[in-house]
Amino acid sequence: MKDAFGAPQSLLILGGTSEIGLATARRLIARRTRTVWLAGRPSPALESAAAELRGRGAYVRTVDFDALDTESHETGLGKIFTEGDIDMVLLAFGIPGDQERDEEEPLSAVRVAQTNYTGAVSAGLVCAGALQAQGHGSLVVLSSVAGERARRADFIYGSSKAGLDAFAQGLGDALYGTGVHVMVVRPGLVRPATAPPGSGAAASGAPLAMIPFTRTPLVTTPDAVADAIVTGLRRRSETVWVPGALRAVMSALRHVPRPLFRRLPV
C-alpha cells in the first residue's frame, strides 16, 4: 500500500535497465519506496542497477523477464505478486529499432512490433489482473509522442507505440473503479543521460542530431520524465506529457493535412 506520504512502498519495473525506470526508482526510494523488483534479461547491467538501488537503501530483487517470451509472462510475473502486494508497476521496456534497416528487413520490423506492442499487451494484462486481484495499485505505461502521428522517419516504431497507447487507454477505462490506476506517459525525444546535447539516440529511434526539435525545450531527459511520473502519480493523472508543451504541439500536428505534414521537418 502507499504510505502516509502517498508514495508506493513497492515497485516493479518491467525493463529493469531502463534509464527512465531507474531514474523513477531513485526518486521513489527517496520518497520511502522500500521494495523494488527489476525485471529484465539477465545481464551485468541489470545486476549493476540492482546494486546501485540497494546502495540507496531499497530491498532490490531481480527477475528474468523477456518481452518476446510471452508464454512465460503469466507464470514469471505472477510469482512476484505471490510474494507480496506491488503498489506500482512501471512498464518501461521497448526498442527503437532502425527505421532504414527495418524497412528492408521485415523480420526486424516485426521484432520492434512484438517487443513494443505484443510483449507489452501480454505483460500489461498479467500485471493489471494481479493489481486488480489485490485491489489497489498503479500501472504506469511508457508510451511516446511518436505514437501520436506516424512520421516518415520512424513510422514502424511509432505505430508500435500508437498501438500500446491505445491499449493502455482502454485498459485504464476497463479498470476504472477497481482501485487500479493506469497512467500513460508520453515523452518527447528523450536524450540519454550520458549523451551530450545534439548527440545520441532519441526515444523516437532517430539520432537526435537529425531531429529539428533537438535544441528546443521539446527534448527531455530520463530525469525529467521520472519527475513527471512522480507528479502524475501524486495527482492520479491518466495521461502525462513530457514536456507538457507537447500536448499543444501534437494537438496542432494531428490536424495538419497529410500533403502538408509530409513536407514538415518532423
From TrEMBL:
Q: Which UniProt keywords apply?
A: Oxidoreductase
Q: Which PANTHER family match?
A: 5-KETO-D-GLUCONATE 5-REDUCTASE, DECAPRENYLPHOSPHORYL-2-KETO-BETA-D-ERYTHRO-PENTOSE REDUCTASE
InterPro entries with a match to the protein in the record: NAD(P)-bd_dom_sf, Sc_DH/Rdtase_CS, SDR_fam
> SUPFAM superfamilies, per this entry?
NAD(P)-binding Rossmann-fold domains (SSF51735)
Q: Which Pfam families match?
A: adh_short
Whether Oxidoreductase counts among this entry's keywords is yes
Q: EC number(s) in its UniProt entry?
A: 1.1.1.333
Name it. Decaprenylphospho-beta-D-erythro-pentofuranosid-2-ulose 2-reductase
Similarity section? Belongs to the short-chain dehydrogenases/reductases (SDR) family.
List the molecular function annotations (GO) for this entry. oxidoreductase activity
Q: From which source organism is this entry?
A: Streptomyces poriferorum
Q: What NCBIfam families does this protein's entry cite?
A: PRK07904.1
* Source organism, top-level taxon: Bacteria
Q: What is the main EC category here?
A: oxidoreductase
